Amino acid sequence: MMRLKLARHLASGPWLSALGAVHRRVTWPILTSLTYHRVIDSPGGCLETDDVVDATVGQFAAQMAFLSEHFSFVTAADVVRWRAGGALPKNPVMVSFDDGYLECFTRVLPILEAHHARATFFVSPRYLDERRLFWWERIERILNRSTRPVVTLRHPRPIELRVEGSPTRAIGDALALVKQTPGLDLSRFLGELEEAAGAPYSEAEEVAEVERTLMTWDHVEALERAGMDIESHTQWHRVLHTLSPSELKFELLGSRRELEERLGRPVRAVAYPVGYPVAHLDHVRASLHASGYEVGFTNHSGTSFLRRSTDPYALCRIAMTPTYDASLFPSLMLAPILAPRRSVPRLPSV
Ligand SMILES: [Zn+2]
């Protein structure tokens, strides 16, 4: 990957310290935002197989130390205030965590506090309330324990998922169906999948796993009390471009209202589940506006210009990965143009 090669090259030469010195002196009119999901203790190194693990605890601590030297931490609420005419500090960086995994409270918060850093946590209220596994986790668990070599589905269309040997491809195909099928009935899909795989997942089993991995409202409220920002990640983490107008309203307005009730303050920012850019879709845009959101974040890699003309519903974030090691992370932060672009599938325009 050309961009990463360049970033690696930058890290190995004298350019990085020169760039760091310039960065500290100059005020760049850009907002750098980072997306994390999980950080884990991993003495043996990184777990690259798990898509939602974005750093080890050690990596994350080193990354926050670097950012605290070169950037000013801001939150999504600060960006909302900036949109309304407020000022942002020099070289702002928004560290954000999506989904609300338990380490946000147990591992991330102490590191943030040690660096006087503030971060934004995008959470999905229905999962916090109902203690269910996220849909991608259920798909993975069901197909991993399938008792049938081929899982045959009728919804959203007749399809055969071959799990014999390795379920990896079938998991990818099933995830793609949820991410890209307009009009998908998610609970019907998951129910059929479970039945067709002959792999029931008991409620008790699910609740026990959720307790090990997901924050509770108490944790979320403790983050807020510690000065962190809590914002919306929709109700059920549904992929926005696949939803009908009434589903969009439920996901967007519903989550904002529930968070506001819980937190007792305005919630005006949303991170789009899965992170596809949606600002070009008129019906999604209209729903974001009608639901009271002032800013929306994608996972489309890159930074956003701090200009009044910047589309507030298309703010970019850089998706973190454990491969951004101690040499690569600083060069990507100082030269974010080198962060790899995330491939975004073609989305329907209606
Ligand atoms: Zn998410």
DSSP strand content: 5-15%
Span of the ends, CA to CA: 33 Å
Radius of gyration: 20 Å
Q: What is the helix fraction of residues, given as a range?
A: 40-55%
List the uncertain runs.
none
Bound molecules: zinc ion
Order of helices and strands: HHEEEHEHEHEHHEEHHHHEHEHEEEH
Query: How many beta strands in the DSSP annotation?
Result: 13
Description of the molecule:
It contains 14 helices and 13 strands. The protein starts with a helix and ends in a 16-residue tail after the last helix. The strands form four sheets. Strands 1, 4, 5, 6, 9, 12 and 13 form a seven-stranded mixed sheet that branches. The chain has a two-stranded parallel sheet with strand order 2-3. A two-stranded antiparallel sheet has the order 7-8. The model has no long low-confidence stretch (mean pLDDT 91). α1 (2-12) crosses α14, α3 packs parallel to α5 (103-114) and α7 (135-144) packs parallel to α9. The protein has helices at residues 2-12, 15-25, 57-70, 76-83, 103-114, 125-130, 135-144, 168-180, 186-197, 203-213, 217-225, 245-263, 282-290, 328-334; strands at 30-36, 38-40, 53-56, 72-73, 92-98, 119-123, 150-153, 159-162, 229-232, 269-271, 295-297, 304-305, 318-319. The chain is of the alpha/beta class and 350 residues long. β7 (150-153) and β8 (159-162) form a beta hairpin. Residues 98-99, 233, 237, 273 line the site of zinc ion.
